[in-house]
Amino acid sequence: MNDTLIRILVACGWAAAGVSGFGTALFVAGSPVAGGQAAAYATPALFIALAFGIYRNSRLCALAALIIFTAMRFEFYRIAQAVQQSHGGAVTMGFWVSAIAFGILYLAGAVGTFAWHARHPEASAPTFES
């Protein structure tokens, strides 16, 4: 795997986290229920911070984003089913399309950060300069 491909994989991860963070922030800002609550902005802020960490090739941030995204899908699936039952339509189909697409992007980001550190071990070694 060359550095260009690794950079593309890492970019997939930080782009997914950035879109998730900013998209959720816009949703919360437009929500009459959650818009006035500062705590509602915690998740978007977390994903924006994780996006920056993935951009900086942090393996921990990439794994955290992947795990948090996956865990949140369980609750969102329950909500998508409830919305589909009450309003009809293909809500769960849209859920699965977005969950799979973003899941692939988050996974690519995690693979990219690990590949980057495998190719550049000096990047993960602590430096103690005096």
Q: What is the SS-derived class?
A: mainly alpha
Radius of gyration: 17 Å
End-to-end span in angstroms? Answer: 35 Å
Task: Tally the beta strands.
Answer: 0
Number of DSSP helical runs: 4
User: Which of globular, elongated, flat, extended, rod-shaped describes the shape?
Assistant: elongated
- The helix-strand sequence is HHHH
The fraction of residues in strands falls at under 5%
Give the count of structural domains. 1
Mean pLDDT: 88
Helix percent band: over 70%
Low-confidence stretches: none
Main sheet record: none
Describe this structure in words.
The structure is a single chain. By secondary structure, the chain is mostly helical. The chain has one domain. The chain has four helices and no strands. Helix 1 runs antiparallel to helix 2 and helix 2 packs across helix 3. The longest helix has 29 residues. The model has no long low-confidence stretch (mean pLDDT 88).
Provide keyphrases for this structure:
130 residues, mainly alpha, 4 helices
Write the layout of secondary structure elements.
Layout: H1 3-30, H2 42-55, H3 59-87, H4 91-119
Helix pairs in contact: 1-2, 1-4, 2-3, 3-4
Give a short synopsis of this structure.
This protein has 4 helices and no strands.
